Structure to design on (356 residues):
């Protein structure tokens, strides 16, 4: 199962809205391995069974998520396992999708296949956190990436921010983008930094969706995002006040425009719900202090990845997080440290909300 989880992780960022599943088939030795393919199909079980061939008969299949039991774009994986003559199926998680939700396990048992559930469940729950949150809460898993000095500043008073962290930390950001479905920034960051938001210098064969929340489409269509929108996806979340000329300019680049209500600003919760409706499960926020504060204040952030540089800027520098308007210390959200590592001269610390 640990091997199946490692295989499944290969799909993170590239299989949405599907979960990133891994499957290992054992019959005296490993005879088949598979993981969910780009775009969500073929499924992991289909790949592993194709590799195993006749050796799947009488074998044990280790699958990180309950095999699907419904007819969608492909037949159910539970049926494929039954047809292949597998004798036993070991799973880590029950699929909370209402179309499955135990039906896959029941279908296997009804066919006389032994089923063992819950093997390495915590690790599988962590691996599929984005899919699980989309299905159960209607929201994506949100990772907030921040880079700051020792005194919590992201830029000088004059706005200079390149580069606070070193090359190793910046490469770490590209790795983060690669395992998320989409990267999100706000209009202010888009205008100030003219970011590209793509994965570079890592041999990537896929790119995350690059998204800007921009109520009035103030970010120029001839920006880096606009010029590359036909190479990899760019989505603009805008409000009703966005000028028609700006809409047409962005549409001409190949970017996708998603209209949302604004009263007077776009709700970040409504924005995330709109992204889930489009299938996004794992979202990396690289926005500035304002967007970060809005997400934190609305309790929408699941993880924080903080890159800390060994530099001091002073109180006149720009803060890493905007105002939260807390009345007292007890109102502050609390976080649990998951990991810490050196990235060159910088330090990466990963935090998770205590409630998940």
């Amino acid at each position: 199962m640990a091997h199946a989880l490692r295989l499944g992780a290969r799909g993170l960022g590239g299989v949405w809205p599907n979960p990133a599943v891994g499957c290992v088939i054992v019959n005296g030795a490993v005879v088949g391995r598979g993981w969910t393919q780009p775009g969500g199909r073929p499924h992991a079980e289909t790949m592993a069974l194709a590799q195993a061939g006749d050796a799947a008969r009488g074998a044990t299949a280790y699958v990180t998520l309950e095999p699907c039991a419904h007819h969608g774009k492909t037949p159910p994986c539970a049926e494929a396992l039954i047809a292949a003559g597998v004798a036993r199926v070991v799973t880590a998680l029950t699929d909370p999708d209402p179309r499955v939700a135990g039906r896959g396990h029941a279908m296997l048992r009804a066919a006389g296949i032994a089923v063992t559930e819950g093997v390495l469940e915590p690790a599988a729950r962590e691996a599929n956190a984005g899919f699980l949150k989309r299905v159960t809460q209607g929201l994506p898993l949100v990772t907030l990436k921040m880079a700051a000095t020792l005194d919590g500043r992201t830029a000088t008073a004059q706005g200079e921010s390149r580069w606070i962290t070193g090359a190793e930390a910046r490469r770490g950001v590209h790795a983060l983008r690669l395992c998320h479905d989409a990267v999100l920034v706000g209009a202010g960051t888009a205008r100030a930094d003219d970011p590209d938001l793509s994965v570079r210098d890592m041999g990537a064969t896929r790119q995350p969706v690059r998204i800007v929340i921009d109520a009035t489409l103030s970010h120029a269509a001839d920006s880096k995002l606009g010029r590359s929108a036909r190479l990899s996806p760019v989505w603009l979340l805008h409000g009703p006040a966005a000028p028609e000329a700006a809409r047409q300019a962005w549409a001409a680049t190949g970017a996708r425009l998603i209209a949302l209500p604004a009263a007077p600003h776009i709700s970040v919760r409504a924005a995330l719900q709109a992204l889930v409706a489009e299938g996004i499960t794992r979202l990396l926020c690289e926005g500035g202090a304002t967007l970060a504060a809005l997400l934190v204040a609305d309790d929408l952030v699941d993880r924080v990845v903080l890159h800390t540089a060994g530099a001091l800027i002073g109180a006149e520098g720009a803060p890493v997080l905007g105002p939260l308007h807390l009345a007292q210390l007890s109102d502050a959200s609390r976080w649990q440290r998951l990991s810490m590592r050196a990235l060159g001269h910088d330090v990466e610390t990963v935090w998770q909300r205590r409630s998940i």
Observations:
- The chain has a mean pLDDT of 94.
- The first strand starts at residue 22 and ends at 26.
